[in-house]
Write a structure and sequence with these properties.
This protein has 2 domains: about 240 residues, TIM Barrel (Alpha-Beta Barrel), CATH 3.20.20.70; about 55 residues, no CATH class. Helix content is about 40%, strand content about 20%. The longest helix has 17 residues. It has a 9-stranded mixed β-sheet with strand order 7-8-6-5-4-3-2-1-9, sandwiched between helices. The chain has a 3-stranded antiparallel β-sheet with strand order 10-11-12, with no helix packed on it. By secondary structure, the chain is of the alpha/beta class. It is globular. A hairpin with a 2-residue loop joins strand 10 and strand 11. The chain has 16 helices and 15 strands. Bound molecules: iron/sulfur cluster. Iron/sulfur cluster binds next to loops.
Length: about 375
Amino acid sequence: MKGLYVHIPFCEHICHYCDFVKRVPKNQEMIDTYLHALRLEIESYRDHFESIETIYIGGGTPSMLSTLQLEYLLEGLKDIKPVEYTIEVNPESYTDDKGIIFKQYGINRISLGVQTFDQKLLEYLNRKHTKAQVVHAVNHLKSLGIGKISIDLIYAIPGQTIEQLDVDLKAIEALDITHVSCYSLILEEKTYFYHQYLRGKFEQMDEDTEATMYQKVMDDLKRQGFHHYEISNYAKKGHVSLHNLIYWTLGDYIGVGLGAHGFIRGIRTYNHHSLPKYLENPMERNEIQDQTMMLQDELIFGLRKMEGVSLKMIRDKYHIDVLKHYPKLLEKMELGLIEIEDDHLKLTAKGIFLGNQVFMVFI
Ligand code: SF4
């Protein structure tokens, strides 16, 4: 499989926890200029179009583009015929017109940035939508025949209670969607929350409550019929994210847009993070080929999948015995964090909560 990631680095406002490559645009011309450069970069990959099987338009907030801007972008991608075609949508910028455009251009999967259905917590995160907007977007997309809908949830928000999380999970159930990505709130540098933290005004949730919440998410989504296939991802039957699987199995993908990265035939590509530099030359990128980094990624991404990482694949591809190459893994095995099953190295039920302790072995 080969994927294409397209980055739209603009947001209408900045969420307090976010450290993605994004900015609030100065005006519409800035977005138009960016899209023009992006189309040039997309076009430079035309030789790959036939082999691309997944497209993922992410951000930032791709749904904040106007209908004209959306059409302009999607025109540049229309000669690609992917099996999975995803766009990230924020509920407040979704309109029926945009849904119709998604449908016209073959988009068949939506990743909806919900985070929580609790209005007070949404305000705390500096999110601007309402639950009613989420419900409207989901229902309208379904009426258009776009039934593959993923919702992003955040848990372990400071001040959040188990009862509030329960309400979120019930709201997910009522929406009858196909996929959930559920992450705990992480304190990232260069975010509003981090500055609050430095001033002593942000207190992270304690680890025990966070672990209880994670267990609740896993149990509840399982009860709803979701398969837990990656540490933070859950899918109904036949609805795993093919595009994300490409990342987690170190498959080939092209990354276009500001700060985007790609991975093609063992070479990582990195685009500029600076908008003026990207606009000056959208085709300029750094390339790095590093076997050690590849092996690290293979093991860390592989262990994030519930099925684990195939030891045979590692032996064949890197000519190493993982346990000999990383002797500290034996300690983690003794601590009950990892196990080997069917020649796959995987996290145990205990290890899922403490994955970072295992991943540190590879860094
Ligand atoms: S979380 Fe999404 S919408 Fe919020 S600032 Fe980050 S990219 Fe923009």
